[in-house]
Amino acid sequence: MNSPLSNPYSQSLILIGMPGAGKSTLGLLLAKNLAKDFVDTDLLIQLEHRKTLQDILNQHGHIALREAEERVLLTAQYPNHIIATGGSAVYSAAAMQHLKHLGPIIFLDVSLDVLEQRIHNMESRGIARPAGQTFAEVYAERRPLYLQYADIVIDCNGKSLEQLVDEVIFEEAEAFVQYEA
């Protein structure tokens, strides 16, 4: 059986990172530049539940939202896609292993200061976290997980979207060459 990594034109790129890191925005640009389809797993969760992420959190709690995300990720079969995951995807080892079979996992690494400037709707954004956990605490808890699962880490601080698109494309191509060697 051929691995999706054996053909760069069929492999997907999986974007992970904190809320506000730019996974959806950058994902759409990458899809356009690489002639790939785009999927945002947060939207898949909302479509499946016919509720916003915040409504799921309010009605069922953060564990239920993480479980919903895990189910969506474990059933993901998206060859030749850019996949923007939810920020809490890394809480599921099984889901992350499944995603690795689709292509490289790319961590969009953004500093806490920049993320806090971008996130103005913390209480309504649908961030899967226990009640009372601050954004800084979420960041401190998740960042080691992002680094653990990432095949490629992209430092997004101080870079334009165009620079980030170019860097992801370059790093993904480098990773493919190394994989083939």
Structure description:
This protein is α/β, with parallel strands linked by helices and 181 residues long. It has one domain: Rossmann fold (3-Layer(aba) Sandwich). Helices cover 51% and strands 12% of the residues. It contains eight helices and five strands; from the N terminus they run βαβαααβαβααβα. It has helices at residues 23-34, 41-49, 53-60, 62-74, 93-100, 112-118, 135-149, 161-180, and strands at 13-16, 37-40, 81-84, 105-109, 152-155. It has a five-stranded parallel β-sheet, sandwiched between helices. It is globular, with a radius of gyration of 16 Å. It starts with 12 loop residues before the first strand and ends with a helix. Mean pLDDT is 89; it is low at 1-5.
Helix content: 40-55%
**What is the CATH topology descriptor?**
Rossmann fold
The rounded Rg comes to: 16 Å
Please report the distance between the alpha carbons of the first and last residues.
19 Å
Mean pLDDT across residues: 89
- The chain-level structural class is alpha/beta
